[in-house]
Amino acid sequence: MPWHSTVSRTRQLLPPELFEQVFTRVPSLCAEAGMVAGHTQVVDSALIKANASMDSLELKVPRETLEAHLGRVGAISRADRKAKENKATVGQQTLTATRGELQEIEARNRRWGLGQDQRTGARNKNSKYTSNKTHYSPVDPDARIAVKPGKARKLCYLLQLSVDTAHHTITHVQADLADRKENQCLPSVLGSLSGRLHQMGLGCNTLLADAGYSSGENYALLEQEGITAFIPPHGTYKGGPEGFSYNKEEDCWVCPQGKKATFRKMKVEPKGSIRKKLYLTTRRDCKGCPLRESCIGKGHEKKVEITYYREEYERVIARLKSRYGRKMKGLRQATVEPVLGTLINFLGLRKINTRVIKQAHKVMLLAATAYNLKKLLNFKPRESQTAVMALPRASAATLLMLFLAAGIEINLRKVKRD
Fold first, then answer.
1. How far is CA 250 from the centre of its chain?
2. Least buried of 19, 137, 161, 389, by fewest C-beta within 10 Å?
3. What phi, psi does 392 have (nearest 5°)?
């Protein structure tokens, strides 16, 4: 029976593969009814609150002091512990952040505390800056601290969603860790989505998403799969410098004075693993240049950093600037935003009431299945009926009489005008 306790217990006992099969079956029924086109898919994500409190967070400790820390915590009475049971593994309790990352978190913590104390009406004086690198939740180790501008920090899961543009049918849903970036999740979403559409006899050739899914690796992957991407690039993209022209044969950038900035090495930024190509001129080229002050200032040579997947970025930017690209932007916003709002506000995804990511994935699959079933039950296909009736063949005398009558009517109208 569809009762809450029955559904909850069944959800815990059954494997996730069964929920995947049930979810795949419903979009297949929608495709048979003509609700899924498949060619254009919209991908987006949303943070869903986990069933864990920020007050339950505990500090990670280095591996060499982990045993002593666990012994000290075990000696504390259960009444003093925030969590009745620590479900985190030893790896999840161990500090893995580097020295530089810890120093950055410490400096950010100082700025956080000063700003919090100086803010008028602040309740949490001397509050601490929490991070996934230094803290974990013992009650739900898979929940991650979500950071979103303008909103309070909370433990969340990341909902990944794919919606078909024909009738807003959900074609894929999955749960991810909240500290993962959207562009890191796109390859797994694309693989599962393509497999499910292939089972339904459909194929995707256009993908719409926001700037969070932008990366050169994703652009190259989509082009390799034959999918046209409408994903706006974010601020990390660096194209060619102003006034410079690119020589593809020699792989160099030519300045307005005709000097060449040649390729030297590949550069990988530690944050986000962003790959860039570094081009440099020589000191001799820039020594007597009249544009030296405005170009390199007090430097000795011109340094040019270019995003590794520049050609893929340029093709996507040109596509987005077109009239069709602006239309696709409006289609993306009108397709996926209402679906996310319905799932969160009306289908139980405002908060995940279970724990660990495997159970959260089941909850999201059930919510998406219920959404698709409601769409299927309310779907009414357009029925167009065309009636054709054969008229009797007119004789020559009848046609002659019709022509004469039309001529007489035209002459009478001319007489009335005169």
1. 37
2. 389
3. -65, 145
What's the number of CA atoms in the CB half-sphere (13 Å) around residue 345?
Answer: 6
CA dist 273 and 236 (Å) reads 11
Cβ(163)–Cβ(169) under 8 Å? yes
CATH code, 34-52+159-235+314-378 = 3.30.420.10
pLDDT digits (tens, 9 = 90+) for 97-130: 666 666 666 666 666 666 555 544 445 544 556 7
Q: What is the pLDDT of residues 41-90, one digit of tens each?
A: 999 999 999 988 888 888 776 655 544 544 544 444 344 446 666 767 66
Q: What is the rounded distance in angstroms from the CA atom of residue 321 to the CA atom of residue 339?
A: 27
- In SS3 terms, 171-200 reads as EEEEEEECCCCHHHHHHHHHHHHHHHHHHC
How many residues are listed for the chain in this entry? 418
pLDDT tens, position by position, 174-199: 999 988 888 889 999 999 999 999 98
Cα–Cα dist 332/204, whole Å: 15
Tokens 């724990």 correspond to 355
Q: What percent of the chain has pLDDT over 70?
A: 74
Q: Which of 225-239, 285-299, 336-350 has the highest mean pLDDT?
A: 336-350
- Could you identify the residue written with the tokens 């256009």? 206
Report residue 373's pLDDT band, with 50, 70 and 90 as the boundaries.
Answer: very high
Dist. CA 190–CA 223, nearest whole Å = 12
Domains of the chain, by residue range, sit at 34-52+159-235+314-378, 54-154, 245-309
Distance between CA atoms of 86 and 61, rounded to whole angstroms? 15
Q: Which amino acid is at 367?
A: A
Contacts of 367 (CB under 8 A, 6+ apart): 173, 343, 347, 348, 349
Q: How far is 364 from 377, CA to CA, in rounded Å?
A: 20
Place of tokens 């405005």: 294
Of residues 372 and 249, the one with the higher pLDDT is 372
Please give the Cα distance from 27 to 200 (Å, whole number): 8
3-state secondary structure of 258: coil
Residue whose token pair is 């303008």: 150
pLDDT at 154: 87
Q: Give residue 222's region: left, alpha or beta (phi > 0; psi -120 to 50).
A: alpha
The Cα–Cα gap between 129 and 131 comes to 7
In DSSP notation, 128-188 reads ----TTTEE-SS-TT-EEE--TTS--EEEEEEEEEEETTT--EEEEEEEETTS-HHHHHHH
